[in-house]
Amino acid sequence: MSLAPWDELRTALHVARAGTVSGAANALRVHHATVIRHIDALEDRLGVKLFQRHAKGYSPTEAGQALAEVAGGAEQNFDALAARLHGLQDGIGGDLVITTVPELCRLLLPALQALMAEHPALNPCLRTEERVLQLEYGEAHLAIRAGARPQEPDNVVQSLGELPFGLYGAKSYLDRHGTPAGLDDLGGHMFIAADAVNVRAPFDIWLRQAGYKVALRSNSTTVRADATTSGMGLGFLTPALAPKDLVQVVEPQPEWAAPIWLVTHVDLHRSAKVQAATAAIKQVLAAGMMPAATFPAG
To answer: Could you state, in order of their start, the residue ranges of all structural domains in the chain?
Structure first.
């Protein structure tokens, strides 16, 4: 037994409600012959009688009542879906999934706040995962990525500039080990670094090549920041997010900066929702919400 087309199910639902072919035809704005054809085809397909025919009209059998209950629920779902699709077409609303690296989440919050103020029907979701979400499969509407330029096919990639990173230490650490005089005075100091199997950031690559001793490795940016704050070692942080009680011992270096990219799929790139999100992100960055970072004009 296969599922009947929705038109036939909807016809049966309206016959059950109206009790007559003419009443269903009026509600559906179709010819009464169409209603009869739909009911006959549906009964043949299902192999059961859905209605008792009599002089006053049609009365649903037990099977017809069961079908009407299911069809009624389906109708509500279709109506809700239609309203949602029309809303998305007429305005900017619904789910908006943005995927990014953990370091950028707090920096994107002002953009999402501005976006929500202008488009309150939006439901933003900010996702961070080690796995790169695939835009071509609809896992996210847009991505903000750091590092090498994304190379996935069918994606539109825009530069958002570079995110700077400086070297920071807690007062407790500096009291024990001394404050480095600069980049050339880091010998003997302990560092907080990424997990050895997850070295992608420019500053982590620099640290590995420099060969300095690592006090703690972690794949969690939160853990690394907490370890730096607790005084376990020197850590790399972007100035816009560095806790106020940490001391910047080496200013951001060009070789430590991480390129930032805004990525959208070509199929969604020009949709109103994605364009609104893109504009909000660029506007917040251009307005100086990330004053320590450098961004291209426009």
So the answer is: 6-90, 94-162+260-286, 166-256
The CATH-assigned architecture of domain 166-256 is 3-Layer(aba) Sandwich (3.40)
> What global pTM score does this model have?
0.61
DSSP label of 256 = G
Same fold flag, 6-90 and 166-256? no
Architecture of domain 6-90 in CATH? Orthogonal Bundle (1.10)
Q: Report in angstroms the alpha-carbon separations of 54 from 66, 141, 203, 279.
A: 20, 55, 82, 64
| DSSP per position, 173-192 | HHHHH----SGGG-TT-EEE
Dump pLDDT digits (tens) for 171-212.
Answer: 999 999 999 999 999 999 999 998 876 677 899 999 999 999
DSSP state of 130: S
Q: Tokens in use for 276? A: 């609104």
User: What distance in Å separates the CA atoms of residue 35 and residue 153, rounded to the nearest whole number?
Assistant: 49
* DSSP run (H or E) holding 156: strand 155-163
Residue with tokens 């949602």: 84
| Helix ranges restricted to H, the chain | 6-18, 21-28, 32-46, 62-90, 102-118, 171-177, 202-210, 221-229, 272-286
CATH class of 94-162+260-286: alpha beta
Task: Please give the biggest Cα pair distance in the chain.
Answer: 100
Q: pLDDT (tens digit, 9 = 90+) per residue, 202-245?
A: 999 999 999 999 999 998 888 999 999 999 999 999 887 888 89
The partner residues of 236 in beta bridges, in order of sequence, read 167
The order of strands in the sheet holding 246-250 is 235-237, 166-170, 246-250
